[in-house]
Design a protein that fits this description.
About 45% of the residues lie in helices and about 15% in strands. By secondary structure, it is α+β, with helices and mostly antiparallel strands. The longest helix has about 35 residues, at about 125-160. The relative contact order is 0.08.
Length: about 550
């Protein structure tokens, strides 16, 4: 069984689900035995009437336990079980009233009305009936309240996980149901054991509810005040569209998978973290984070959205800035993603500044894994070597050597790259007109064994000017290829042909400038469709996110 806990799917082992069901059944049997001392497993050997009323008693007890746990039980929607289920205020009061009546009915059915234990249709005493109604109603109301508070505790547990308290949130999540069963057993004992004084019975039931309500209410109040807690999701909090409403763009890779000239076509859904991606929505999420000072339970999802979103928008500068965001030790920069981008990025002063920011962050890093620290130092050494900075490259290489007693992998030292003046230029036309609505992406093939697919290695992107021209500069030697992207109305038509595909081409020392033949997109037969405007205007420069320590 799988549970969708907020935005992540969690697998529940079958033995754990079976154990939970068995515990619930044991609690139901305990309730039936406490309400009527004659209820026991021996009822299976009783005459038919006794067995019937025994089954009714166990069924009523099981129904009361099941309904008490209802707010924290998964609800099945389209084959996926969602947990926990949020209960609105009016529904919560209805649930308490319903459980009060159900508790009274269950106690009556198990106790005074189960006369078949002694003799069929024996008359119940009026005092026993009143007592069963009173304490059954108390038991039902209190267990309903405890179940509702346990449901809130599960939300708090996931919120704690999302703001970096993973161990505490996980412990609360997994301990909630066993603690709930123990609390229910206490409430059952307090409402059925007549040897307790009435005041102690009421204090025990109220105390059982307070043990859930006070800590849970205080934690939720803190989260609401300090962490913008209470929204159903990032889409509602930041005012962005869901993934189902996202745009789709047609992608044309101007190379075959093996690097030969040719064309690959596919469509891309502009989605990240279950949300639609566009420049407007990326800006909305950024404003939302800044408005709340990055103190929101959706901070992790929002940072992942920004990092993945700028990649989807073919804006490596924005993605690298998002990768560098550090909000204390619980929310470190995404070193791996940043290094993947910087090792293919143009050798501009802005990108070198980003590399320096990562190096300062890595200086303060206390990694628990020697392997991760070694990979980070290796990547920094390679990145500085690519920017021609021998001093810093050797500095991080020295840091790797200090790990050698613990670090088993070989250290690969990249040669220092002094050539940073590479340039690629060309033009794109659509049926003879400048294709200013087509975004051009330049990608690097980092390994000859990697298939050309435009799924990684983005160097930069550009929108052609009024003449359809584009250019990329500050490139280092390497193997490059192009991809085009636009609205499916323009590039999604299968009759659109690319009359020139450069395939994978190489920039090498002595030949660092490449003027490509014009890339002519042409519709085979018929009148061309009107050229649409771009889906989203390109961002004006990289978006710089705050660096916090």
């Amino acid at each position: 069984m799988s549970l969708l806990v907020f935005d992540h799917l969690q697998r529940i082992p079958l033995p754990l689900a079976a154990a939970a069901a068995a515990l619930g059944l044991l609690l139901a049997g305990f309730l039936a035995a406490e309400v009527n001392e004659r209820f026991s497993p021996d009822i299976l050997l009783a005459p038919w009437a006794g067995r019937f009323w025994g089954a009714v008693s166990l069924g009523l007890a099981a129904l009361l336990v099941l309904e008490a746990l209802h707010p924290v039980l998964p609800g099945k929607v389209f084959g996926v079980r969602y947990w926990p289920a949020r209960v609105p205020g009016w529904a919560a009061w209805n649930h308490v009233l319903y459980m009060t009546g159900l508790g009274a009915a269950a106690f009556l059915g198990i106790g005074p009305l189960s006369g078949a234990y002694d003799a069929p249709y024996a008359k119940a005493e009026a005092g026993r009936v009143r007592s069963a109604v009173l304490w059954g109603g108390v038991c039902g109301a209190v267990t309903a309240g405890v179940g509702l508070e346990a449901g809130r505790a599960l939300f708090v547990a996931d919120a704690l996980r999302q703001i970096g308290h993973g161990v505490l949130g996980g412990a609360l999540l997994w301990c909630a149901v066993p603690c709930l069963l123990a609390t229910a057993a206490l409430v059952v004992r307090a409402t059925t054991d007549a040897r307790w004084e009435i005041r102690w019975r009421f204090l025990a039931t109220v105390g059982a509810f307070a043990l859930w309500a006070i800590p849970g209410g205080a934690a939720e109040a803190y989260l609401r005040l300090a962490w913008d807690y209470g929204r159903p999701g990032l889409a509602d909090a930041a005012g962005v569209r869901k993934a189902s409403e996202a745009d789709r763009l047609s992608l044309v890779v101007l190379s075959l998978p093996d690097g030969a000239p040719g064309v690959q076509r596919r469509e891309e859904a502009m989605t990240a973290e279950g949300l639609a991606v566009s420049h407007q929505e990326l800006a909305a999420v950024r404003r939302y984070l800044e408005k709340h000072g990055y103190q929101t339970v959706f901070v992790v999802a929002a940072l992942r959205y920004l990092r993945r979103g700028w990649e989807l928008m073919w804006d490596p500068g924005g993605a690298m800035d998002a990768d560098l965001v550090r909000l204390g030790p619980r929310f470190p920069p995404d070193h791996e993603a940043f290094l993947r981008s910087i090792l293919v990025a143009p050798a501009t002063p802005e990108n070198y500044g980003r590399l320096e920011n990562l190096a300062r962050s890595a200086d303060a890093l206390h990694s628990a894994s020697v392997k991760k620290a070694g990979n980070l130092f290796q990547g920094l050494s390679d990145a500085y070597a690519r920017f021609g900075d021998l001093k810093n490259s050797n500095l991080w290489l020295g840091r790797i050597r200090k790990l050698w007693p613990l670090y088993d992998d070989d250290v690969n030292v990249d040669p220092v790259e002094d050539i940073h003046d590479g340039r690629v230029s060309g033009a794109v036309t659509f049926n003879g007109r400048p294709a200013s609505a087509v975004q051009v992406g330049l990608f690097m093939q980092t390994s000859t064994s990697t298939a050309v697919s435009a799924k990684g290695g983005l160097v930069a992107s550009a929108w052609p000017d009024a003449e359809g021209s584009f250019s990329f500069s500050d490139l280092t030697p390497g193997r490059y290829y192009l991809a085009l992207r636009s609205d499916p109305i323009l590039l999604g038509d299968p009759r659109i042909e690319a009359l020139f595909s450069p395939g994978v081409f190489r920039l090498a020392p002595g030949a660092m400038s490449r003027e490509l033949f014009p890339i002519r997109l042409q519709r085979a037969g018929g009148m061309p469709p009107p050229e649409p405007g771009p889906m989203s205007l390109p961002a004006a420069g990289a978006v710089t996110l705050p660096q916090r320590r």
